[in-house]
């Protein structure tokens, strides 16, 4: 029997598969790797810079260039898709208003705009006049409270006010004798109520006079209320600051979405590359999956292709500088890389905007015509945005996944 095939388990693929399955469609999700969520901050950025800091992301979405992925979707659909994801995951995992950016501290002490955040993070919003204490753990690598507090204290808050920030340390190994534990080690330890109590007591002892205590984002992997437990003991709000990958908040979102997929009946083939396809009369008939016993054909009613961009290897540049999409050979907005990388490392590089163009339903096009009538694209493959600079990759992934799924659901109906 033909099923809807979703290729890719990043934010875009997971959202497309969930949305399709919730509409009662049989869905198979095939992915070679875990996608970018576990590397991310565990928040949902809609649009953070355009190019200046954005406070109202939907207003900025309304003003994007005509070749931007948001342009054909529009602010209302972007807001609805983000709200859908937030409500699917529930208030223990994602809160916020798609129309308003929060300005949260990073592990470098800079301030990043984001839209939906985990409830354990929101009290960390950088607001003028507030006093912050940043607490590090001696045995946890990659989080320096001096760096975070020093940079925060010398940066004006986005509202123009000044803030105070001071560092503090606690000494509490997650595992006896381990001197440079990762965030994941602490998160797993903090899933245990007794260890979380000891952690909270240690933080309370050093918090001093402040309005908010900033902590590394390790407050539990599976037990989502650890931040409340710590906050109650400390007697004031605490907030998580995401660390570099692997990211505990990102893994929380990934695992929660996988749980929703299982509950919705999605068949999930993880660790397998889609290597080819069969097409007839302008429609995809099947995709070929590299399975353990040899290639396997999966009959496809529709395909949502959400393979990411350069970072996942879906787009590649060869030694001649030619850019190609590797599975379907889809037409790209540019095919020669040398002109697309500028001399200034920090300046925008048009290479990152290369991808497929789509029609209003999200189908990759060659000229104006859909390449295959039943092939849809979502996420990082779609041209027109420098996602990491704009902080728009999450919002684009969710909005284009919902667009593709709804086009399939609507078309089938
Ligand atoms: C350094 C960096 C920093 C970034 N920072 C931000 C940021 O701060 N904010 C923001 O919003 N965005 C940011 N982005 C962009 C964001 O990470 C991406 O837009 C987002 O991850 C795209 O999600 P996706 O689901 O489209 O793809 P991915 O998360 O890349 O997932 C792709 C999936 O497809 C699978 N796959 C690929 N090809 C195949 C195949 N042939 N067969 C089977 N499976 C396949 C992969 O294994 C993976 O599961 C950043 C990107 C980079 C590179």
UniProtKB/TrEMBL annotation:
Assigned keywords, A-Z: Flavoprotein, FMN, Oxidoreductase
Protein name according to UniProt: Glycerol-3-phosphate dehydrogenase subunit GlpB
InterPro entries named in the record: FAD-dep_OxRdtase_2_FAD-bd (IPR003953), FAD-oxidoreductase_2 (IPR050315), FAD/NAD-bd_sf (IPR036188), G3P_DH_GlpB_su (IPR009158)
NCBIfam families per UniProt: glycerol3P_GlpB, PRK05329.2-3
Any coiled-coil regions, as ranges: none
Gene Ontology CC entries for this record: glycerol-3-phosphate dehydrogenase (FAD) complex
EC identifiers of the protein: 1.1.5.3
UniProt-recorded Gene Ontology molecular function terms: glycerol-3-phosphate dehydrogenase (quinone) activity
FAD-dependent oxidoreductase 2 FAD-binding domain sequence ranges: 5-395
EC top class, as a word: oxidoreductase
Signal peptide (UniProt feature, chain positions): none
């Amino acid at each position: 029997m033909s099923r809807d095939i979703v290729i890719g388990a990043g934010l875009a693929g997971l959202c497309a598969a969930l949305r399709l399955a919730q509409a009662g469609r049989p869905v198979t999700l095939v992915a070679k790797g875990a996608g970018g969520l576990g590397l991310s901050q565990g928040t949902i950025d809609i649009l953070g810079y355009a190019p200046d800091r954005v406070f109202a992301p939907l207003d900025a979405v309304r003003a994007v260039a005509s070749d931007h992925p948001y342009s054909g979707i529009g602010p209302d659909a972007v807001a609805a898709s983000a709200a859908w994801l937030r409500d699917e995951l529930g208030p223990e995992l994602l809160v916020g208003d798609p129309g308003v950016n929060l300005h949260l501290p990073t592990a470098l002490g800079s301030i990043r705009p984001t839209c939906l955040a985990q409830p354990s993070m929101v009290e960390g919003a950088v607001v003028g006049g507030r006093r912050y204490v940043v607490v590090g753990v001696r045995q946890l690598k990659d989080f320096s409270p001096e760096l975070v507090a020093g940079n925060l204290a010398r940066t004006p808050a986005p509202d123009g006010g000044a803030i105070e920030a001071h560092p503090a340390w606690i000494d509490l190994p997650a595992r006896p004798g381990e001197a440079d534990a990762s965030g994941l080690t602490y998160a797993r330890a903090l899933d245990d109520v007794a260890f979380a109590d000891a952690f909270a007591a240690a933080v309370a002892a050093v918090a001093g006079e402040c309005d908010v205590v900033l902590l590394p984002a390790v407050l539990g992997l599976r037990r989502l209320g650890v931040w409340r437990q710590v906050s109650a003991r400390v007697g004031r709000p605490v907030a998580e600051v995401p660390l570099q990958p692997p990211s505990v908040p990102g893994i929380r979102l990934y695992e929660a979405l996988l749980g929703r997929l299982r509950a919705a009946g999605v068949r999930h083939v993880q660790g397998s590359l889609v290597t080819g396809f069969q097409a007839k009369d302008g429609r995809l008939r099947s995709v070929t999956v590299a399975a353990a016993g040899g290639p396997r054909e999966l009959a496809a009613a529709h395909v949502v292709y959400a393979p990411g961009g350069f970072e996942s290897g879906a787009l590649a540049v060869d030694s001649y500088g030619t850019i190609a999409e590797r599975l379907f050979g889809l037409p790209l907005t540019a095919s020669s890389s040398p002109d697309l990388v500028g001399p200034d490392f920090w300046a925008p590089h048009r290479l990152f905007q290369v991808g497929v163009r789509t029609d209003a339903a999200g189908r990759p096009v060659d000229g104006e015509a859909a390449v295959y009538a039943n092939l849809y694209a979502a996420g990082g493959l779609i041209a027109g945005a420098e996602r990491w600079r704009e902080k728009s990759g999450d919002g684009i992934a969710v909005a284009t996944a919902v667009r593709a799924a709804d086009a399939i659901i609507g078309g089938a109906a």
